[in-house]
Amino acid sequence: MVSMDGSQPNSVRLCAHCTDLWTWLVQYQDETVLPECQGTSMPHAAWANVDTARVKNIVLVPRQDGLEQVVVDVGAYSPVFFRRRYKELSINGLQEVSQQNIHCLGYEAADGTGNYVFVFEDGSVLLSTNRNAV
Ligand SMILES: [Zn+2]
Protein backbone atom coordinates (compact mmCIF):
# COMPACT_ATOMS: atom_id res chain seq x y z
CA MET A 1 0.00 0.00 0.00
CA VAL A 2 1.25 3.45 -0.85
CA SER A 3 0.98 5.74 2.12
CA MET A 4 -0.05 9.38 2.03
CA ASP A 5 3.39 10.58 3.07
CA GLY A 6 4.72 9.43 -0.28
CA SER A 7 6.82 6.60 1.01
CA GLN A 8 6.27 3.37 -0.82
CA PRO A 9 7.52 -0.17 -0.55
CA ASN A 10 10.03 -1.42 -3.12
CA SER A 11 7.24 -3.55 -4.59
CA VAL A 12 5.71 -0.34 -5.96
CA ARG A 13 8.97 1.39 -6.80
CA LEU A 14 10.21 -1.65 -8.72
CA CYS A 15 6.84 -2.76 -10.12
CA ALA A 16 7.36 -4.31 -13.56
CA HIS A 17 3.90 -3.27 -14.76
CA CYS A 18 4.54 0.42 -14.19
CA THR A 19 6.83 2.27 -16.57
CA ASP A 20 5.95 5.86 -15.62
CA LEU A 21 7.93 7.94 -13.16
CA TRP A 22 4.85 8.51 -11.01
CA THR A 23 1.94 6.41 -9.90
CA TRP A 24 -1.35 7.90 -8.72
CA LEU A 25 -3.52 7.26 -5.75
CA VAL A 26 -6.78 8.82 -4.65
CA GLN A 27 -7.81 9.51 -1.11
CA TYR A 28 -11.57 9.42 -0.60
CA GLN A 29 -13.57 11.66 1.71
CA ASP A 30 -13.80 8.77 4.22
CA GLU A 31 -9.95 8.65 4.27
CA THR A 32 -9.75 5.31 2.45
CA VAL A 33 -7.20 5.14 -0.37
CA LEU A 34 -7.28 3.61 -3.86
CA PRO A 35 -3.75 3.25 -5.29
CA GLU A 36 -3.04 2.61 -8.95
CA CYS A 37 -0.20 0.28 -8.04
CA GLN A 38 0.42 -2.02 -5.10
CA GLY A 39 3.23 -3.97 -6.72
CA THR A 40 3.68 -6.39 -9.58
CA SER A 41 1.75 -9.22 -7.92
CA MET A 42 -1.39 -7.14 -7.37
CA PRO A 43 -4.01 -6.08 -9.93
CA HIS A 44 -3.65 -2.45 -10.95
CA ALA A 45 -6.42 0.11 -10.70
CA ALA A 46 -7.39 2.16 -13.72
CA TRP A 47 -8.69 5.71 -13.43
CA ALA A 48 -12.07 4.29 -14.57
CA ASN A 49 -12.16 2.35 -11.27
CA VAL A 50 -12.13 5.59 -9.29
CA ASP A 51 -15.38 6.64 -7.64
CA THR A 52 -14.89 10.26 -8.68
CA ALA A 53 -17.81 11.63 -6.65
CA ARG A 54 -16.06 10.66 -3.40
CA VAL A 55 -12.51 11.82 -4.16
CA LYS A 56 -10.91 14.25 -1.72
CA ASN A 57 -7.28 14.32 -2.95
CA ILE A 58 -5.35 13.04 -5.95
CA VAL A 59 -1.75 12.21 -5.12
CA LEU A 60 1.03 11.65 -7.65
CA VAL A 61 3.62 9.46 -5.97
CA PRO A 62 7.14 9.45 -7.44
CA ARG A 63 8.77 6.11 -8.21
CA GLN A 64 12.29 7.58 -8.38
CA ASP A 65 14.45 9.55 -5.98
CA GLY A 66 14.66 13.25 -6.65
CA LEU A 67 11.06 13.72 -7.79
CA GLU A 68 8.45 15.42 -5.65
CA GLN A 69 5.06 14.14 -4.61
CA VAL A 70 2.20 16.24 -6.01
CA VAL A 71 -1.14 16.54 -4.20
CA VAL A 72 -4.31 18.14 -5.58
CA ASP A 73 -7.17 18.91 -3.20
CA VAL A 74 -10.24 18.31 -5.33
CA GLY A 75 -12.71 20.07 -3.02
CA ALA A 76 -16.28 19.85 -4.27
CA TYR A 77 -15.20 19.46 -7.89
CA SER A 78 -14.70 16.46 -10.17
CA PRO A 79 -11.18 15.02 -10.18
CA VAL A 80 -9.26 14.71 -13.44
CA PHE A 81 -6.26 12.53 -14.20
CA PHE A 82 -4.62 11.64 -17.49
CA ARG A 83 -1.22 10.98 -19.02
CA ARG A 84 -0.07 12.50 -22.28
CA ARG A 85 2.51 10.49 -24.18
CA TYR A 86 4.58 12.39 -26.69
CA LYS A 87 7.11 10.92 -29.08
CA GLU A 88 9.47 13.14 -30.95
CA LEU A 89 10.38 11.67 -34.32
CA SER A 90 13.36 12.40 -36.53
CA ILE A 91 12.75 14.69 -39.48
CA ASN A 92 12.05 11.76 -41.81
CA GLY A 93 9.58 10.36 -39.27
CA LEU A 94 11.33 7.01 -39.08
CA GLN A 95 13.27 7.26 -35.85
CA GLU A 96 12.06 8.06 -32.39
CA VAL A 97 14.33 10.77 -31.02
CA SER A 98 12.83 11.14 -27.58
CA GLN A 99 9.73 10.41 -25.58
CA GLN A 100 8.06 12.35 -22.80
CA ASN A 101 5.17 11.27 -20.62
CA ILE A 102 3.35 14.14 -18.98
CA HIS A 103 1.02 13.53 -16.05
CA CYS A 104 -1.97 15.79 -15.54
CA LEU A 105 -4.08 16.01 -12.43
CA GLY A 106 -6.65 18.56 -11.49
CA TYR A 107 -10.33 19.18 -11.06
CA GLU A 108 -13.24 20.48 -13.09
CA ALA A 109 -16.49 22.23 -12.28
CA ALA A 110 -19.83 21.29 -13.82
CA ASP A 111 -19.50 24.16 -16.32
CA GLY A 112 -16.30 22.62 -17.71
CA THR A 113 -13.86 25.10 -16.20
CA GLY A 114 -10.98 23.57 -14.33
CA ASN A 115 -7.56 23.80 -12.81
CA TYR A 116 -4.81 21.47 -13.96
CA VAL A 117 -1.32 20.56 -12.80
CA PHE A 118 0.94 19.21 -15.56
CA VAL A 119 3.95 17.32 -14.22
CA PHE A 120 6.93 16.78 -16.51
CA GLU A 121 9.52 14.04 -16.32
CA ASP A 122 12.21 16.40 -15.02
CA GLY A 123 9.93 17.20 -12.09
CA SER A 124 8.89 20.62 -13.31
CA VAL A 125 5.26 21.59 -12.97
CA LEU A 126 2.90 23.78 -15.00
CA LEU A 127 -0.33 25.13 -13.51
CA SER A 128 -3.04 25.98 -16.03
CA THR A 129 -6.75 26.51 -16.44
CA ASN A 130 -6.41 25.02 -19.93
CA ARG A 131 -6.85 21.25 -20.09
CA ASN A 132 -4.96 21.25 -23.41
CA ALA A 133 -2.07 23.40 -22.21
CA VAL A 134 0.43 20.69 -23.15
ZN1 LIG B 1 2.67 -1.11 -10.74
Please give a structural write-up:
The strands form 2 sheets. A 4-stranded antiparallel β-sheet has the order 2-1-3-4, with no helix packed on it. A hairpin with a 4-residue loop joins strand 1 and strand 2. The termini are far apart. The chain is 3% helix and 43% strand. The protein contains 1 helix and 8 strands. It has one domain. The protein has one helix at residues 10-13; strands at residues 22-28, 33-35, 55-62, 70-73, 78-89, 96-108, 114-119, 125-128. It is globular. The structure holds zinc ion (ZN). Zinc ion is lined by residues 15, 17-18, 37, 44.
Based on CA atoms alone, the radius of gyration comes out at: 16 Å
- Strand content is 35-45%
The total count of helices amounts to 1
Mass-distribution shape? globular
What does the main sheet amount to? 4 strands, antiparallel
As residue ranges, the low-confidence spans are none
Total strands? 8
Secondary structure class reads: mainly beta
Side by side, the strands of the main sheet go: 2-1-3-4
Which kinds of small molecule does this entry bind, naming each only once?
Answer: zinc ion
The averaged pLDDT comes out at 91
